[in-house]
């Protein structure tokens, strides 16, 4: 079929105008990667992910230490909404069952408030560790009856085998680059049948990119993409599938480096370390007593997961399963 030249010219004009409109709208509404809060991902991914001796990030530890009195005061005056309404209710409900009569190691204990809370649940003993010397100082001052040590989560070699019934760790494991060797060591620390209970960043929420239209105060968190059918251009927001480093500023003050990893990687690392999975919780926020200023956040957390909680068990006998190898996964 031959297209008459006047029709061809007409079609070309239509496409040219559409192209100009697309470009204009792209310029005015295109969200920008948001470096404002210091949040950006490291395109190089996780460097040297095979070094199990890498014990924590010095700058993160220093930043927590620098703000340790602010942190302690904040925690002792009620903590953050994420703590009080999303994560701690589940963690403490589980600990109320696990704690009585137990020896508990609390890893990433911050300024010690959780150790004190857990100790009140009828434990035989609680030991708290954290990478930040400043936070451990606050913990010792605040709770002199509890034993505290400065130690990276990756380096608990000095604790004797089978010395704990429960390892409790709240919102700290995302700071640990390589879970498997670290979790294998936690298995050594636990008595047979012992529990490793931990909460960590949820890879859906923390895999999102923060974007903001130029000049707007509205923050948009995205994990998704746009695709333009004519030009085949795609724009991707966030990254769920890869194991990568994030640099961020926490509570507008504390400079932190942590790691995002997909659920499949979490599962492989847990299984390969030798733990059995007893429970997984993706907590929604508790809708009771929500302060007015957190009403929006509370609604978000009814639908978007911020944290994930794992209750793991050390088998009574040595694990016999074959290692689970990720297939088709870049998340090594
Ligand atoms: C979000 S705070 C949680 C503190 C406490 N568990 C709570 O929920 O209140 C994270 C804690 O992890 C500690 N941390 C960061 N990297 C760590 C590492 N590699 N080893 C041990 N602790 C670490 C920080 O010093 C900080 O106390």
TrEMBL record:
One of its GO terms (molecular function) is S-adenosylmethionine-dependent methyltransferase activity. Residues 105-198 form the Methyltransferase type domain. CDD domains: AdoMet_MTases (cd02440). It comes from Candidatus Kerfeldbacteria bacterium CG15_BIG_FIL_POST_REV_8_21_14_020_45_12. Pfam families: Methyltransf_11. This is Methyltransferase type 11 domain-containing protein. Residues 28-63 are annotated as: Disordered. InterPro entries: Methyltransf_11, SAM-dependent_MTases_sf. SUPFAM superfamilies: S-adenosyl-L-methionine-dependent methyltransferases. Residues 48-61 have a biased composition (Basic and acidic residues).
């Amino acid at each position: 079929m031959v297209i008459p030249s006047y029709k061809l010219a007409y079609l070309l004009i239509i496409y040219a105008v559409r192209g100009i409109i697309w470009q204009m709208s792209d310029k005015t509404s295109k969200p920008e990667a948001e470096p404002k809060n210091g949040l950006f991902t490291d395109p190089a991914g996780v460097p040297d992910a095979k070094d199990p001796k890498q014990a924590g990030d010095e700058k993160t530890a220093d930043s927590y230490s620098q703000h340790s009195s602010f942190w302690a005061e904040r925690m002792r005056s009620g903590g953050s909404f994420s703590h009080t309404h999303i994560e701690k209710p589940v963690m403490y409900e589980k600990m109320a069952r696990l704690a009585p009569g137990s020896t508990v190691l609390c890893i990433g204990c911050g300024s010690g408030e959780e150790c004190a809370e857990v100790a009140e649940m009828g434990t035989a003993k609680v030991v708290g560790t954290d990478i930040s010397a400043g936070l451990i100082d606050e913990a010792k001052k605040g709770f002199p009856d509890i034993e505290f040590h400065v130690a990276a989560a990756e380096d608990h070699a000095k604790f004797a085998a089978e010395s704990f019934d429960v390892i409790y760790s709240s919102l700290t494991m995302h700071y640990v680059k390589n879970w498997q060797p670290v979790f294998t060591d936690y298995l050594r620390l636990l008595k047979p049948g012992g529990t490793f209970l931990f909460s960590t960043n949820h890879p859906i929420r923390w895999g999102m990119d923060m974007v903001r239209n130029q000049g707007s105060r509205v923050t948009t968190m995205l994990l998704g993409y746009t695709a333009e059918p004519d030009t085949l251009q795609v724009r991707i927001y966030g990254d769920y599938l890869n194991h990568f480093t994030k640099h961020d500023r926490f509570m507008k003050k504390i400079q932190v480096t942590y790691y995002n990893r997909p659920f499949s990687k979490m599962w492989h690392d847990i299984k390969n370390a030798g733990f059995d999975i007893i429970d997984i919780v993706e907590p929604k926020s508790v809708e009771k007593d929500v302060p007015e200023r957190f009403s929006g956040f509370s609604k978000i957390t009814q639908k978007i997961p911020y944290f994930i909680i794992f209750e793991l068990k050390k088998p009574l006998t040595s694990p016999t399963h074959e290692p689970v190898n990720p297939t088709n996964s870049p998340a090594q």
